[in-house]
TrEMBL record:
Pfam family of the protein (one): Thioredoxin_8
Record's protein name: Thioredoxin domain-containing protein
Ranges that cross the membrane: none
Origin: domain of life: Bacteria
Native species: Leptobacterium flavescens
Domain Thioredoxin stretches: 332-470
């Protein structure tokens, strides 16, 4: 590995003077304060390579002849980011996990386009609060503000393409990193404006507000896993579903049926307008996940939705994933027994979650060593909740693989080991308990039957609601 890295760094040093004639590409770099031992490179959802960091926290990946040019993403758990790799590129990254995105820097051949992508990612993040404030403006004023923000980014884009030779593909993806967050904000605007202003109905949008839709490509397979593109299309199809329903449906559905109704419309629109399988499949999955998780407490609606979904997803590569999610959510309904999972105790012995029930009403919460701020915050929250709700037992489940690092964290946080466990298999617990974020808690009766499996530890209303049933 050491000699390969030396060769790679030599290649980086020569990259500015060499011509792009190589049929292979290289990706490597250094991770400061690593959270994990590995870096995994993906093309779409396919693992291209998984490499272990060396003793200097460096890694090296060679993409052999015949690799696909385009957007990749690399994962150093729990973080990930995009990298655009094209013919002859030799890209080196350096980052510090304490500030993953902000510290990420690309060097070597192919660096300029990737530094532009991470810059646009960070700028869009920084603008979120500003854009939120703009939602209160009237449509024409909001439009001017959005055009101004986009114009500043386009100046940076023009500076990039005038100073560096980029392929058409790289130019398109660079512009996509500007345009789709801009489009997304405009699609969100009518709903956020109504909410911000406390209006009962969505105000009429002036002609020309959505002119960008005329140039929209629903089938850009190069962007099929690019989050700004997918986020925009998802919001766009939500708006189209609403508009279509307001125009064609005889009457507005009742509140309990509204979400099911609109998401069913959305499935039909995606199926009719998106032809590229990868884009279509991702949008169908996104729509299904959103509905099933949002309406997790509506078993009848979920059953109707999954039946409809399956009629549109005969060839969808995520059909099994969506149906597994549906099944897991149904198993987490109140009154069902908590699904069995394997746990590891502080003494390294194996146990099961049913074996650790102690005849008390119990709250299970989840945390990770890799999310240090969350780790400290949630255990501080649990400490205060124990005082507030002494009738409840709080049990922490760590989702990491390293027994040694987990025990070190328990000691550092000053946690008693009596009510702390580590999951034996993250994939198992994530699937069975439908863990999509670590603020989730699961509350069970003394016999292990579920009271609520979708509460949030930071929502006091969830606790008050559940305590009424105990």
């Amino acid at each position: 590995m050491r000699y390969l890295l030396l060769a790679f760094f030599t290649l980086i040093a020569c990259s500015c003077t060499s011509e792009k004639t190589s049929s292979v590409a290289y990706f490597g770099g250094e991770i400061i304060n690593p959270n994990d031992s590995y870096v995994v490179l993906y093309k779409n959802d396919e693992v291209i390579d998984s490499v272990e960091l060396d003793e200097n926290n460096r890694f090296f990946i060679q993409l052999e002849e015949g690799y696909k040019e385009g957007l990749y993403h690399f994962v150093h758990r729990p973080e990930e980011q995009y990298v655009l790799i094209e013919k002859g590129d030799s890209i080196l990254i350096r980052l510090n996990t304490l500030d993953f995105d902000e510290s990420l820097v690309f060097t070597g051949r192919g660096a300029e386009k990737n530094n532009f992508l991470i810059d646009m990612f960070l700028v869009n993040e920084d603008e979120e609060q500003l854009v939120h404030d703009y939602f209160a403006l009237e449509p024409k004023e909001f439009d001017k503000k959005m055009d101004s923000l986009r114009g500043m980014k386009m100046e940076q884009y023009e500076n990039l393409v005038s100073n560096f030779e980029l392929s058409k593909n790289a130019k398109d993806i660079a512009k996509a990193s500007i345009n789709f967050p801009y489009y997304d904000n405009k699609e969100v605007y009518p709903h956020m404006h109504r909410k911000t202003k406390g209006l009962k109905e969505i105000e009429e949008i002036p002609a020309g507000f959505y002119d960008y839709r005329k140039e929209l490509n629903y089938n850009d397979s190069r962007l099929s896993y690019f989050r700004p593109y997918l986020n925009y299309l998802s919001m766009h199809f939500s708006n189209m579903s609403y508009e279509s329903c307001m125009e064609k449906c005889a009457e507005e559905p009742s509140v309990p049926e509204r979400s099911l109704h609109f998401h069913t419309h959305k499935l039909k629109l995606i199926d009719s307008l998106v032809k590229k399988e990868e884009v279509r499949d991702n949008l169908l999955r996104n729509t299904a996940y959103t509905y099933l998780l949002q309406d997790h407490d509506n078993p009848a609606g979920s059953k109707e939705f999954i039946t409809t979904f399956n009629t549109f997803s005969e060839e969808c590569k995520f059909k099994e994933d969506v149906n597994n999610l549906y099944t897991s959510i149904q198993k987490l309904q109140p009154g069902n027994s908590l699904p069995e999972i394997a746990l590891v105790k502080p003494d390294s012995s194996l146990s099961s979650i049913s074996s650790e029930l102690s005849g008390e009403n119990t709250v299970f919460y989840f945390w990770s060593i890799n999310q240090k701020n969350h780790m400290k915050r949630i255990n501080k929250k649990v400490k205060s909740l124990r005082k507030k709700y002494p009738e409840l037992r709080f049990v922490g489940i760590n989702i990491n693989e390293s027994q040694e690092r987990w025990l070190h964290s328990l000691k550092m946080l000053g946690l008693e080991t009596e009510n702390q466990y580590r999951c034996a298999n993250f994939n198992e617990i994530s699937r069975k308990f439908v863990i999509r974020n670590l603020n989730k808690i699961i509350i069970v009766n003394p016999d292990g039957t579920i009271i609520d499996a979708f509460s949030n530890i930071y929502r006091s209303s969830d606790f008050k609601k559940v305590l009424k049933t105990i």
